[in-house]
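Narrative of activities, Objective 1.

The group set out to show that a structural description can be obtained from nothing but a protein's sequence at a throughput compatible with the screening campaign. Below is one input-output pair from the validation batch, recorded exactly as produced.
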Amino acid sequence: FEPEPYYELSRALAGRIQNLREIETLEQKERKLKIAGEKEKFLRLIAEDLNKGRLEDVLSHIVKACSEIFHPCNCRIYLREGDSLSLKASSSEVLQEEIHSSINDWFKEGSWNGELRLLNEGQNQKFKDRNGKKTFAVPLGNGKEPTGVIILECETNHDSFSPSEQDFIRTLAFQATEALKSSSLSKALEHKENLISSILDSVEDRITIYDKELRVIKINKAGDSKNTDEDKENNWQKKLTPNFHEIILTQDRFRGQRKLR
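Output recorded for this entry:
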């Protein structure tokens, strides 16, 4: 019996195993770099959407980011409308009515705590039989009164998320919350502007509103029909007549207060 050939074979196998491990390590590093690049790309796109106030685009990029980075996972975003949830964005066109109903029921129970949660666990039987899929949820908004929820429906190989993955999901939830706040403020501002416009337009006399630098920022309907090039050049020193009103808006830069004079 000559053990030398076996020693050679053993060393060759050990070298091969080491090479495979190194290749696997390099592939893992490449995947991590690729995922990091994808995360950065989506965060940049979402930030641009936030700056432009595009709520639908923010939600669309969030579900796309979740479905691509956490593949194979489907992502959906539901927003509160009254006492129930309404689907606003989805990475999959296929939507099963029972999962929508189950998420609505879970949301009404108020069992959310602001953190990513696996809905298949605990006493919730509605998520037990999901054909091997795991359903994760993270609320949007503050913990007491969430305005919606991000749902991730993943295959069985996704039993949990790593700390870095959870951080990314929380970041996406925060951005969705900020987009909702911005949209709500924009709608409130638009409502106030429309209300002011309707009040001004109901007045038969001409009303012109100037900003702090005496630039015309609004003329009511009565004034707009009589608007001249001279008025557009901010001829604000014109004498007031019974059917002409000038309102100068001034703003305290430090206190943010507005007043009429």
